């Protein structure tokens, strides 16, 4: 792998969901020895998708932490191997004096009428686009959003230079930008966002330039990001969901509202822009085109026809395209080199009897497909062990009981991990896999199950997502029948059992046979636990293991 | 001396059965799993079977017909029985320490 410093920017609701998928890839161990600086940008600071992604990162960081080291270290050949540093930035449109375009630009002031106002009225409808509440995002008004996004970041630099106290809510943006400007050419910056919506579509075209300008102002010209050398990449994610058409009353109340019927048109216009714009050509190294050609699921409150424009209620289930976007970021970060000119990348998926078949290569490419197969399978197996075998999905102790089992077999190194920290691991896996409400047998799908269902619910026949359908039991009854040693559905990867040894026996035997970690690269008890389990599962699944790793 | 040797052979054979039983008993995952206890119990059950088996073999089946040899043989049986029992336990402790984290480790931990 290269030694460039990695930066990830998630813009808008879709960007946040792609970020969540990327964090789960990190949890599986796909970004060994890597530290990633993550910046979330959303005008809607209470957005449910944003909140969920940040919670996942927060939990990930807590799982990585050990003793006095609150942020953890990078590691390898383990789960949760990457280190993720999160920074948040939300342009502030909450105040009444600054929550519409007209108030921010002060074009409403009759005394300041000028050519600027005439120009503004030409591109932005003075009664709608200039008047809607910006606190829930730019609502697919990309021409407005790009302008405001750029202005917001550049203005942040000016505020920080002028008065540090005023800029205290901008501190995290400053910290992120400081790290970026220190690294310069050795930076790889990947931006998650959609191109059909509001915030993401607004941000992708302007963020590199905005970052460049920020650095110039903030450092007073001493430092700059050279856009031709710093590597930028982004997802061009076209529409993959829809929601009910806004009612007349809603339009009257909100003035401007996103209409999902226009998403294809928005996407088409955006793609044409990215194809032809010279600034894009000189700024970005790779653009990943991701779309969803199958049925689109509806989002929002379909019974009442209310559209969730933003806020905490906008918490939509995960979708396969978000995982594909995360795979795009992985590809960008792991490439050995880039060509001189901008590259447009797309992929296709195998179809069988009109059903898509998603393989490991479809997510991370051919070079890393075996690595992903091993790590995803190991992580998924561990999820079932914690959630099903040790009842972590319901009211059981999950990984706490696994640690106690190892203690009963005289592997006592992990017994010092506080139960509260082990419960955080349970919580993470519930978010990844599934859980049950108290006194309920209805399975609540976590991220991985949601991704699988997004394919099932929008295609016909027998679609396939990495593992056979039997590895995703969705009822308590089917969970009881699940054999954790057979999740791949392939004889080569089945845990070797016999008439006197079943999958459970195989797993514990392997863990107790596996020598404990003495590697100097693995510090911290939790890291040792994950490495131990990782190697144990690797062996159970019959992958070759180099003892020197 | 022959009886001592037979006692150790029988102890070794019974210990092998103990090992097989321990390996056959599968690990259990549920809370309050009993697999560890089962291995321990079987070890001690076979610890009792060991001297019984020795006595049946040495005290009945292999008893010499010659009266003089028979007396010597019978005189050595009690000590040989103890030697066999202790040999079984000691070997069990050694194996349990060697395979501390595995199934055999459950015998003494």
Radius of gyration of chain A: 24 Å
Oligomer: heterodimer
Gross morphology of chain B: elongated
> What is the alpha-carbon Rg of chain B in Å?
17 Å
> Pairing-aware structural class of the strands and helices of chain A?
alpha/beta
Unreliable runs of chain B, pLDDT <50, ≥5 residues? none
**How far apart, in Å, are the first and last alpha carbons of chain A?**
16 Å
Number of helices of chain A: 19
Strand tally of chain B is 0
Q: Enumerate the strands of the largest sheet of chain A in spatial order, edge to edge or round the barrel.
A: 3-2-1-4-5-7-9
Strand content of chain B: under 5%
Summarize the amount of helix of chain A as a percent range: 40-55%
> Which bin fits the share of residues in helices of chain B?
over 70%
- How many beta-strand segments of chain A? 14
Report on this structure.
The complex is a heterodimer of chains A (549) and B (109). Helix content of chain A is 43%, strand content 12%. In chain A, helix 1 links the parallel strand 1 and strand 2. In chain A, the strands form 4 sheets. Chain A has a 7-stranded parallel beta sheet with strand order 3-2-1-4-5-7-9, with helices on both faces. The two termini of chain A are 16 Å apart. Chain A is an alpha/beta fold and 549 residues long. The longest helix of chain A has 21 residues, at 142-162. Chain B is an all-alpha fold. In chain B, 75% of the residues lie in helices and 0% in strands. Chain B has 3 helices and no strands. In chain B, helix 1 runs parallel beside helix 3. The longest helix of chain B has 32 residues, at 67-98. Chain B is elongated. Classes of the chains: A alpha/beta (549), B mainly alpha (109). The A-B interface holds A 385, 389-391, 396-397, 401-402, 405, 408-411, 500-502, 504-505, 507-509, 512-513 and B 23-24, 26-31, 33, 36, 100-103, 105-106, 109.
């Amino acid at each position: 792998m290269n030694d460039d410093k990695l930066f990830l920017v998630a813009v808008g609701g879709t960007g946040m969901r792609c970020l969540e998928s990327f964090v789960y890839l990190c949890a599986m161990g796909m970004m060994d020895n890597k530290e990633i600086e993550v910046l979330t940008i959303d005008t809607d600071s209470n957005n449910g998708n944003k909140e969920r992604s940040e919670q996942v990162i927060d939990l990930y960081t807590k799982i990585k932490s050990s003793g006095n080291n609150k942020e953890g270290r990078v590691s390898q050949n383990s789960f949760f191997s990457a280190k993720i540093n999160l920074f948040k930035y939300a342009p502030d449109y909450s105040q009444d004096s600054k929550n519409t375009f007209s108030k921010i630009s002060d074009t409403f002031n009759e005394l300041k009428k000028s050519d600027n106002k005439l120009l503004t009225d030409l591109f932005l409808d003075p009664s709608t686009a200039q008047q809607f509440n910006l606190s829930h995002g730019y609502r697919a008004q990309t021409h407005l959003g790009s302008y405001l996004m750029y202005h917001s970041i550049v203005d942040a630099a000016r505020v920080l230079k002028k008065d540090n106290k005023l800029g205290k809510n901008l501190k995290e943006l400053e910290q992120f930008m400081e790290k970026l400007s220190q690294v310069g050419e050795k930076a790889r910056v990947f931006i998650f966002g959609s191109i059909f919506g509001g915030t993401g579509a607004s941000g992708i075209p302007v963020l590199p330039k905005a970052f460049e300008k920020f650095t110039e102002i903030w450092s007073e010209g001493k430092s700059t990001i050279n856009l031709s050398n710093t590597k930028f990449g982004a997802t061009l994610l076209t529409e993959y969901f829809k929601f009910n058409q806004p009612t007349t009353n809603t339009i009257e109340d909100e003035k401007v509202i996103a209409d999902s019927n226009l998403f294809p048109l928005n996407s088409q216009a955006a793609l044409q822009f990215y194809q032809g714009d010279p600034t894009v050509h000189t700024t970005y190294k790779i653009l990943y085109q991701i779309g969803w050609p199958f049925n689109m699921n509806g989002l929002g409150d379909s019974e009442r026809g209310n559209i969730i424009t933003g806020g905490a209620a906008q918490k939509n289930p995960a979708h396969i395209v978000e995982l594909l976007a995360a795979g795009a970021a992985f590809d960008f970060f792991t490439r050995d080199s880039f060509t001189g000119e901008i590259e447009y990348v797309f992929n296709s998926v195998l179809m069988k009897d009109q059903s898509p078949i998603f393989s490991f290569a479809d997510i991370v490419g051919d070079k890393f497909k075996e690595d992903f197969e091993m790590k995803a399978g190991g992580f998924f197996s561990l999820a079932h062990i914690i959630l099903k075998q040790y009842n972590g999905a319901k009211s059981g102790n999950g990984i706490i009981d696994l640690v106690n089992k190892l203690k009963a077999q005289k592997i006592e190194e992990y017994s010092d991990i506080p139960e509260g920290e082990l419960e955080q691991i349970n919580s993470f896996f519930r978010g990844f896999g599934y859980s049950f409400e108290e006194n309920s047998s209805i399975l609540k799908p976590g991220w991985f199950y949601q991704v699988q269902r997004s394919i099932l619910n929008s295609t016909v026949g027998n679609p396939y997502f990495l593992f056979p359908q039997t590895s995703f039991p969705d009822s308590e009854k089917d969970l009881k029948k699940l054999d954790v040693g057979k999740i791949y559905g392939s004889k080569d990867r089945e845990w070797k059992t016999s008439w006197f040894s079943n999958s459970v026996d195989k797993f514990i035997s392997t863990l107790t046979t596996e020598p404990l970690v003495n590697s100097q690269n693995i510090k911290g008890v939790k890291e040792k636990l994950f490495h131990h389990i990782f190697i144990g599962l690797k062996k159970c699944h019959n992958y070759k293991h180099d003892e020197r790793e | 001396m022959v009886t001592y040797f037979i006692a150790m052979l029988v102890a070794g054979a019974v210990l092998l059965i103990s090992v097989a039983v321990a390996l056959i008993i599968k690990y259990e995952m549920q809370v309050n799993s009993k697999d560890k206890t089962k291995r321990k119990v079987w070890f001690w059950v076979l610890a009792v079977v060991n001297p019984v088996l020795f006595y049946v073999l040495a005290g009945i089946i292999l008893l010499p017909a010659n009266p003089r040899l028979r007396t010597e043989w019978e005189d050595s049986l009690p000590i040989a029985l103890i030697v066999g029992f202790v040999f079984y336990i000691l070997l069990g402790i050694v194996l349990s320490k060697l395979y501390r984290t595995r199934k055999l480790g459950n015998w003494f931990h």
